[in-house]
User: Which sequence fits this backbone?
C-alpha cells in the first residue's frame, strides 16, 4: 500500500470499529464495546504512524509515537496532537486488547465479567477522541508537508 492509502485505510478501519462500539454500547454489550473501542484506538494510532511512513503492524502504537516525538522535529500543533493521543493509546493498548479477548487469566475472570457500562463509556469516549485526532493529524501533516514543499 502507499502511505496515503494506508492512512486512509486505517482511519476507515477506526471509523468502522467506532460505529460498532457505539452500537455495542446501545445494546449493552460492554465487553464488545471496549473491544471495538480498543480496535478503533489502535487503528487511529496506526494511521498516525502511517503518516510518518511507519508500517502500522502493531497493537501498541503508543511506543512508536513516543519515539517519533523524541526523534523528529515537528510543528508544535502536530507535536501537541501526538502527545494528546498517547494517554488513550496507553489505556486501550495491548493489555486491553488481551483482556477483551481472553479475560484476566491470572484470576480466571472471563472477559464478560471485566467490563461495566462505565468502562465501556470511557473506552467509547477515547475511541471517539482518537478518530477525530487522527483525522485532524492527517490534515495538519498534509498542510505542513505542503508548506515544506512550497519552500
Assistant:
Amino acid at each position: 500500500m502507499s502511505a496515503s492509502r494506508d492512512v486512509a485505510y486505517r482511519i476507515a478501519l477506526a471509523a468502522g470499529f467506532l460505529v460498532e462500539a457505539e452500537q455495542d454500547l446501545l445494546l449493552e454489550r460492554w465487553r464488545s464495546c471496549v473491544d471495538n473501542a480498543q480496535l478503533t484506538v489502535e487503528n487511529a494510532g496506526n494511521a498516525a504512524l502511517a503518516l510518518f511512513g511507519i508500517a502500522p503492524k502493531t497493537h501498541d502504537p503508543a511506543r512508536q509515537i513516543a519515539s517519533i516525538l523524541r526523534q523528529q522535529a515537528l510543528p508544535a500543533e502536530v507535536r501537541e496532537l501526538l502527545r494528546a493521543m498517547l494517554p488513550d493509546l496507553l489505556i486501550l493498548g495491548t493489555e486491553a486488547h488481551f483482556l477483551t479477548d481472553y479475560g484476566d487469566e491470572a484470576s480466571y475472570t472471563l472477559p464478560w465479567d471485566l467490563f461495566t457500562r462505565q468502562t465501556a463509556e470511557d473506552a467509547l469516549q477515547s475511541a471517539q477522541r482518537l478518530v477525530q485526532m487522527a483525522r485532524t493529524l492527517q490534515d495538519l501533516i498534509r498542510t505542513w508537508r505542503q508548506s515544506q514543499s512550497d519552500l
